[in-house]
Design brief:
This protein has 6 helices and no strands. It is mostly helical and about 130 residues long. It has one domain.
Length: about 130
């Protein structure tokens, strides 16, 4: 009967532990960035950048994917709030930033439609009659 040698950490296993710690740190920082509304700015010091870094390390990270979805959700809230208070330039700014995160998001499309309808009521009315 032969015995197997003990498992020893190798250079191949160390990056995995380091990667796990790095992912945990990035996710924690991204969470703080979302809470502070550092969603896509400042450059490289924002939640979106950190979630993307996590996805480079772990492309299937559900926490990073959910975090990116939460950024879009937060932007939709900000767009809606700005639109409701007729701060259209601010809503446009949030919309431009949100599109860089998820241009095809259906909630984002709805927020854009609401913004356009409120900002340009006659144009939205004319457009709806044409379709």
């Amino acid at each position: 009967m032969t015995t197997k040698p003990p498992v020893v950490a190798t250079d191949e296993t160390k990056p995995s532990a380091q990667r796990t710690a790095q992912i945990a740190q990035l996710l924690a920082q991204a969470g703080r960035d979302v809470a502070a509304l550092r969603l896509t700015t400042p450059a490289s010091r924002n939640a979106f950048a950190k979630y993307r870094e996590v996805l480079v390390l772990d492309p299937k990270s559900s926490r990073a994917l959910n975090g990116i979805a939460s950024i879009v959700y937060k932007y939709v809230q900000l767009i809606d709030r700005a639109t409701e208070t007729d701060r259209f330039d601010l809503a446009d700014l949030y919309l431009r930033r949100a599109v860089t995160v998820s241009p095809e998001d259906r909630n984002l499309r709805r927020a854009r439609e609401t913004l356009v309808a409120k900002r340009y009521p006659r144009g939205a009315e004319a457009a709806s009659r044409r379709h």
